Each structure stands twice: as structure tokens, then as C-alpha cells.
């Protein structure tokens, strides 16, 4: 994420991430993790209840974390892009 910074002069100050999927969502790394667990669920055939429960937990946990991250960004930065979604592009 550090390589996505536009300005490297002030490394000790937190900046808004830009580039790649950060143009669409505030937490693209959370989105990628949900896709990974979804792939695990699909690869297993979807017959195991424990994998469904794991997937549900991961989605609930990361959606909550992304919502809080989005709220923090909006509170901390006045110039935060208002068109970014929290975790799922064009959905939420």
C-alpha cells in the first residue's frame, strides 16, 4: 500500500490511498479476502457446513471492518473521495 502514495515527502503522516482498486472501494484488500474464501467454498463443492459458516463469518467481519474504515476515512479527511464504496464496488 505504501507504493500507492502520490507524495513520498511526509512518510510519517497517514494519507488517502489511491490507485488500482482503491479508486472504487476503501478496503479492496478485504474484498480480495472475501473472494479468496468464496473460491475456497466453490472449490470444496459447497457441501461442508463448516466452510459455509466460515465464509459467513469472514464476510460479516470484513464488511463491518470496511464500514468502520470508511467511516474513519470520511471523518479524518475532508477531501476523501465521496464516490468510493466501503468494500463491494458499485454495491456497498
List the main descriptive attributes of the protein structure presented here.
92 residues, mainly alpha, elongated
Brief rundown of the structure:
The protein has helices at 28-43, 49-76. With 92 residues, the chain is an all-alpha fold.
Query: What percent of residues are in strands?
Result: under 5%
Largest sheet data: none
Residue windows where pLDDT falls under 50 for at least 5 positions: none
Name the average pLDDT: 87
Query: How many angstroms separate the termini?
Result: 22 Å
- State the helical fraction: 40-55%
How many DSSP H or I helices?
2
Helix and strand element order: HH
Q: Quick one: overall form?
A: elongated
Count all strands and give the number.
Answer: 0
Question: How does the helix and strand content classify structurally?
Answer: mainly alpha
Spatial extent as radius of gyration: 16 Å
Domain unit count? 1
Amino acid at each position: 500500500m505504501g507504493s500507492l502514495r502520490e507524495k513520498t515527502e511526509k512518510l510519517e503522516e497517514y494519507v488517502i490511498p489511491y490507485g488500482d482498486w482503491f479508486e472504487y472501494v476503501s478496503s479492496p484488500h478485504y474484498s480480495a479476502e472475501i473472494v479468496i474464501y468464496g473460491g475456497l467454498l466453490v472449490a470444496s463443492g459447497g457441501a461442508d457446513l463448516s466452510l459455509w459458516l466460515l465464509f459467513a463469518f469472514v464476510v460479516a467481519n470484513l464488511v463491518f471492518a470496511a464500514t468502520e474504515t470508511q467511516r474513519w476515512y470520511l471523518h479524518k479527511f475532508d477531501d476523501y473521495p465521496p464516490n468510493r464504496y466501503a468494500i463491494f464496488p458499485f454495491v456497498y
